[in-house]
Amino acid sequence: MNIWVFLAGLNAALAVAAGAYGWHALGDTPEIRDIFMMGSQYQMWHALGLMGVGLMIHHAPSRALHVAGGSFQIGIFLFSGTLYSFGGLSMVPVEGAAPFGGGLLMLAWLIVGIVGGRKLRAA
Question: Can you give the pTM of this predicted structure?
Fold first, then answer.
């Protein structure tokens, strides 16, 4: 089984569930709901990034792509998780978790771009 494809599907399903919860259960406070929904949107976009990592690894295995997959997964947890916590509970569980998670997400995209660029150039 390709762990990154599995985690992509899991994250996408959780993002849909979180979006439904945020839209229907968080009441009429747009600021709080918007923060929560941003977590859902970021989780979905980066779940698609994880899917890309899984597909790239299937066609051209690379240690760097596994680093990208791990960065995506940890980044999703830290970034979106912080937004969910702040939007749903009005608290930040760990100071600095969201910016660190965002940095991991950016790192993952950079790795995907570099590895993808190298693979295309070599083809």
Answer: 0.93
Distance CA 54, CA 61 (A): 9
**What is the domain extent for residue 89?**
3-115
Contact 18, 36 (CB under 8 A): yes
122 domain-assigned? no
Tell me if 123 is assigned to some domain. Answer: no
Total structural domains within the chain? 1
- Residue 38 falls inside a structural domain: yes
Model confidence over 61-115: pLDDT tens digits?
A: 999 999 999 999 999 999 999 999 999 888 999 999 999 999 999 999 999 999 9
Instruction: For residue 62, report the phi and psi dihedrals to the nearest 5 degrees.
Output: -155, 135
Query: What is the rounded CA–CA span in Å between residue 93 and residue 27?
Result: 22
Is the dihedral angle over the CA atoms 14, 46, 87, 95 positive or is it negative? Answer: positive
